[in-house]
Design goal:
Number of helices: 5
Shape: globular
Oligomer: single chain
Number of strands: 5
Length: about 170
């Protein structure tokens, strides 16, 4: 509903929905969604990854985002746009996600992290080498100034943020 609040003169955003009816077979769902993205963003021969204008992401307590989880092989995928996950460490176990190169290629990436429960993981991501290897940390490092963090005081108490114009 919040997308309906965008003034018409600004144009309507394009939302690329996942066919949740196919999630019983995550690979089929991933293939179907990737095919849909290819049809929107051009043929794979001419476009290495889709160019999303904005990705709005969360930050899990273990540093995961999208459905890119620490230590999972999906983090090393460089060719596919959409990946299947059969054994997610949090429910539901079967899901799909955009690959790391697709996320990093977005024009703007917004992370939202609020509440005291995010302090520890934010500190790790922003202040340690180990945290920079977590999915959120990899995106934060690789996408650089394209990343903005939207956090409240409870989540950021005692955290040193990188000095760039994208931390709010």
């Amino acid at each position: 509903e919040w997308l309906d609040k965008i003034p018409e003169d600004l144009g309507q955003p394009k939302v690329h929905h996942i066919d949740v009816g196919k999630l019983d077979d995550p690979q089929e769902a991933a293939d179907s969604y990737e095919k849909a993205l290819v049809s929107v963003f051009a043929s794979r021969d001419s476009v290495r990854v889709p160019g999303f204008d904005l990705l709005l992401l969360g930050c899990g307590p273990d540093g995961h985002t999208c459905s890119l989880f620490p230590g999972y092989p999906q983090l090393r995928e460089t060719d596919a746009w959409v990946l299947a996950i059969e054994d997610s460490p949090k429910p539901p176990p079967k899901r799909i996600t955009l690959s790391l190169p697709v996320v990093v290629a977005a024009a703007k990436i917004a992370f939202v992290a609020t509440g005291e429960g995010k302090q520890e993981i934010l500190k790790k991501i922003l202040e340690t080498d180990e945290g920079r290897q977590l999915p959120c940390g990899l995106i934060n490092e690789q996408a650089g100034d394209k990343v903005s963090w939207f956090c409240d005081a409870a989540a950021t108490t005692g955290i040193t943020f990188p000095r760039r114009g994208s931390v709010i």
